[in-house]
Amino acid sequence: MRLENIGGRRVFVFAATDGRRWEEPAIECTICMGQGEHPADKPVIDYVNGGYIEEIIVTCEDCRGYGYVPDDGEEEE
């Protein structure tokens, strides 16, 4: 699976082992806003000071780092 820009729109391109190829339209991920990663909180244990929260950058689980998700044609309310 690859993410390509075809005709000014983003599509996921799939290729089968027998040479067949098909495309699925893609829309920007609403979790990471197309970046593929986003900030997250990570608790850090500190026995002396009681611990703290550290901000880290993680790969978006919704789009798996592509920044786009398949467009299923349904609009959210």
Outline the structure in words:
With 77 residues, the chain is an all-beta fold. It has no helices and six strands. It has strands spanning 2-6, 9-15, 21-28, 37-44, 52-59, 68-70. A four-stranded antiparallel beta sheet has the order 1-2-3-6, with no helix packed on it. A two-stranded antiparallel ribbon has the order 4-5. A hairpin with a 7-residue loop joins strand 4 (37-44) and strand 5. It is elongated and about 60 Å long. The protein starts with a strand and ends in a 7-residue tail after the last strand. The mean pLDDT is 90.
Which helices and strands appear, and what pairs or packs with what?
Elements: E1 2-6, E2 9-15, E3 21-28, E4 37-44, E5 52-59, E6 68-70
- Classify the helix fraction into a percent range: under 10%
**Radius of gyration, in angstroms, nearest whole number:** 18 Å
> Strand arrangement, largest sheet?
1-2-3-6
> Strand percentage, roughly?
over 45%
Structural class: mainly beta
By DSSP, the count of extended strands is 6
Largest sheet, in brief, is: 4 strands, antiparallel
How much is the average pLDDT? 90
N/C terminus separation:
29 Å
How would you spell out the order of helices and strands? EEEEEE
Number of helical segments with 4 or more residues: 0
What is the overall silhouette? elongated
Q: Which stretches are poorly predicted, pLDDT < 50 over at least 5 residues? A: none
